[in-house]
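Chapter summary example: a protein plus iron/sulfur cluster.
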Amino acid sequence: MLDLILKVRENVLNEIPITFEEALRLTTAGPLDIPYLAAAANEVRAKFAGNSVESCALSNIKSGNCSEDCKFCAQSGHYRTDAPVYSQISVEEIVAQAKEAEAMGATEFCLVSSGWGATQEKEFQVVLEAVRRITKETKLFADCSLGFLTDEQMTELKRAGLYRNNHNLEASKNYFNKVCTTHTYEQRARHVQEVQSHGIFPCSGGILGMGETPKDRIDLAFELKKLNVHCVPINILNPRRGTPLGDVESLEPLEIIKIIAIYRFILPKSTIKIAGGREVNLRDLQAMAMQAGANGLILGNYLTTLGRNPARDIQMLKDLGFEISQTPSPTHVGG
Ligand code: SF4
């Protein structure tokens, strides 16, 4: 295994892409191999993505009652969960949250809304105004995750100053229909491309630990590479009571570190952002994940669960020798 790690490290540092077979073989790395794998991925991160970490804060601007049946999601209207249900909050509330996020050290601020897409014109106008004001009144980069958008909406969001649009693939092409049946993997992948064609940087990742195989995880990373995504959020399932995945067994922290490192080899130039489920699944290995190739994290709370104190995360990043990025780098495009 060590020989394989060294070979892949050497190749990727010399811009020779890792092959699918090599990545798949790395998924068999054992606990004693993983620190070497992480260190090699960390070198790749330092060379191609620099030493600064992007931190993104989320605002759940509309929660619950979603028409879709994503089996991991506490906001789906198909399941009975304890997730909050509320209609879209006002521009003032969104901007106030953004200013709080800026004060806690975030680089970006992402407006996230439950549902198929921004189907209500009044609600969409609130999002547009919030994006304009965040761009004007703070140093934050404004991002959105609003589901499926029309061409016109993407044009307007771009004009308002939107930086990135998040639309996760969630799972590999092969596994997607095990976690969602109300829309398809192909629709999601197509939408990631549509976002890019409007000049908006695409943010797209997935959720680990939903019962997928190691091969599914590698498939997903190569699919994201093919789509040339700018930023890859890696969520780790935090099983929510009432959802069909509520009883799934959690991944071991070292298994998550291994996957993050392999994703860095596959996507050397992308921002790899550790997202939902970080605290509960990685526990004391959160710092190790940042030394395994990641260069981004979600700061503060998630959509329906709490994150840890942002000051602790900022301190962890400083202790690890990272800088906190003031500007998400467009040069990170393309894995
Ligand atoms: S992940 Fe998004 S689309 Fe799927 S159920 Fe949750 S809010 Fe709806």
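Key point: The first strand starts at residue 52 and ends at 62.
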